[in-house]
């Protein structure tokens, strides 16, 4: 069993994830001074945003590898999901440790975004490792949620940071 039938989806998502990753880099470079004036929160958020989008890019790219056994694809997706989750967790923990008594609205959206993008990716990867083709739908949800999270975080890094 392969990821047959998903190539059009993965091609589209590779392009979208790559474009949004570039936009995050532009947002960071345009507002670098503002981001660095709040070193306890915004650099971590920028890092999470980029990690989430690059994770989606890697997953979609892995889905395009021809004739790849579904279990191997699942293990690749699982590994990417775990790396993105661990990276987000480390960045968030560093932020919380640096800023004592952070308001809930600083860390809760980041936590929700991190879990919403990585848990479906991890679940999809596990299902594919178990040769359950419905795991592809979890992977698709994870990629789409990652793109939405990337747009949301890019908005914050481009627009909301200037308010």
Strand and helix layout:
Elements: H1 7-30, H2 32-36, H3 42-63, H4 70-98, H5 104-129, H6 135-158
Helix pairs in contact: 1-3, 1-6, 3-4, 3-6, 4-5, 5-6
Quick overview of this protein structure:
The protein is 80% helix and 0% strand.
3D structure, described in words:
With 163 residues, the protein is mainly α. The chain has one domain. It has six helices and no strands. α5 packs antiparallel against α6. The chain is elongated, with a radius of gyration of 16 Å.
Features:
163 residues, 0% strand, elongated
Q: What is the strand content? A: under 5%
Helix content: over 70%
Give the distance, in angstroms, between the N- and C-terminal Cα atoms. 51 Å
Write down the overall mean pLDDT.
90
Which radius of gyration do the C-alpha atoms yield?
A: 16 Å
Largest sheet: none
Count of helix runs: 6
> How does the overall form come out from the CA principal axes?
elongated
Task: Tell me the total number of β-strands.
Answer: 0
Domain tally: 1
Order of helices and strands: HHHHHH
Q: Quickly give the structural class.
A: mainly alpha
Unreliable segments (pLDDT under 50, ≥5 consecutive)? none
């Amino acid at each position: 069993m392969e990821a047959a039938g998903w190539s059009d989806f993965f091609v589209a998502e590779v392009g979208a994830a790559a474009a949004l990753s570039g936009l995050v880099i532009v947002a960071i470079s345009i507002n670098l001074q503002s981001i660095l004036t709040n070193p306890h929160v915004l650099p971590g958020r920028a890092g999470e945003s980029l990690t989430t989008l690059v994770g989606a890019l890697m997953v979609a790219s892995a889905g395009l590898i021809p004739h790849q056994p579904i279990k191997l694809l699942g293990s690749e997706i699982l590994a990417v999901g775990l790396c993105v989750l661990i990276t987000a967790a480390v960045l968030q923990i560093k932020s919380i440790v640096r800023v004592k008594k952070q308001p809930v609205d600083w860390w809760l959206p980041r936590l929700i975004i991190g879990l919403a993008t990585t848990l479906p990716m991890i679940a999809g990867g596990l299902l594919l490792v178990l040769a359950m083709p419905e795991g592809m739908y979890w992977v698709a949800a994870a990629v789409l949620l990652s793109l939405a999270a990337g747009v949301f975080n890019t908005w914050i890094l481009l627009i909301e940071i200037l308010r």
